[in-house]
Amino acid sequence: MLDIYKLGDEVLREECSDITEFDEALRMLCDAMIDTLEEADGVGLAGPQVGVSKKLFVVHIRGEKPMVFINPSIIGTSIETGVYEEGCLSIPGVYHDVVRPVKVTVQAQDVSGKPFTLEADGLLARVIQHENDHLHGKLYIDHLDEKEREKVVHAYEKKNRIRRRQKSRV
Ligand code: NI
């Protein structure tokens, strides 16, 4: 399993670079990210969240096949927006409503470098936008107004402090 980087880690705030080598190492990284995502019981995981500042993310929606997006670019979004309560494996334990377009069109490459275009709606559209943000150093809390963002960060820090205290009590 790969370590998941958390809020405060600089790698989560960096602009990712393009992937140019579609080799065995990339395939292994994608497999490890899919395993880590499943272990963490999440639906999406982006490169920076495992310390890799490269343009890739994996998505696994329950009941469907895991998907890999390399060098993705969102080329279209619906005017219609929706609200959904998001969380993030890099900010565990807290959630907040986020407004985003309900449909997106994304262009990306698969693990062998083959380009594809996908139109998505529902949860998949939501996850693609959340993960794509990670590749540009952006987190879901950046979509909230300052007051709401502070509330979420405060709740996360409070939970984290408690967890750390429990851990050291041995
Ligand atoms: Ni996230």
Write a concise keyword list for the protein shown above.
170 residues; alpha+beta; Peptide Deformylase; five-stranded antiparallel β-sheet; two-stranded antiparallel ribbon; globular; binds nickel (II) ion
List the helices and strands and how they pair.
Blueprint: H1 24-39, E1 44-46, E2 56-59, E3 67-77, E4 81-86, E5 96-101, E6 103-109, E7 115-121, H2 122-134, H3 146-168
Antiparallel strand pairs: 1-2, 2-3, 3-6, 4-5, 6-7
Q: How would you describe what is shown here?
A:
By secondary structure, the chain is α+β, with helices and mostly antiparallel strands. It has one domain: Peptide Deformylase (Alpha-Beta Complex). The chain contains three helices and seven strands; from the N terminus they run H-E-E-E-E-E-E-E-H-H. A hairpin with a 5-residue loop joins strand 6 (103-109) and strand 7 (115-121). The relative contact order is 0.17.
Brief write-up:
This protein is of the alpha+beta class. Helices cover 31% and strands 26% of the residues. The protein has a single domain, classed as Peptide deformylase (Peptide Deformylase, Alpha-Beta Complex), CATH 3.90.45.10.
List ligands, each type once.
nickel (II) ion
Structural class: alpha+beta
- The CATH topology is Peptide Deformylase
* Fraction in helix: 25-40%
**Residue fraction in strands:** 25-35%
User: CATH homologous superfamily?
Assistant: Peptide deformylase
Distance between the termini: 25 Å
The topology string of helices and strands comes to: HEEEEEEEHH
Largest sheet: 5 strands, antiparallel
Q: Give the radius of gyration.
A: 16 Å
Please, what is the average pLDDT? 95
Outline the low-pLDDT stretches.
none
Question: How many domains make up the coordinates?
Answer: 1
Strand order of the largest sheet: 1-2-3-6-7
Globular, elongated, flat, extended or rod-shaped: what is the shape?
Answer: globular
Q: Using DSSP, what is the number of strands?
A: 7
Shape-level CATH architecture: Alpha-Beta Complex
Number of helices: 3
CATH class: Alpha Beta
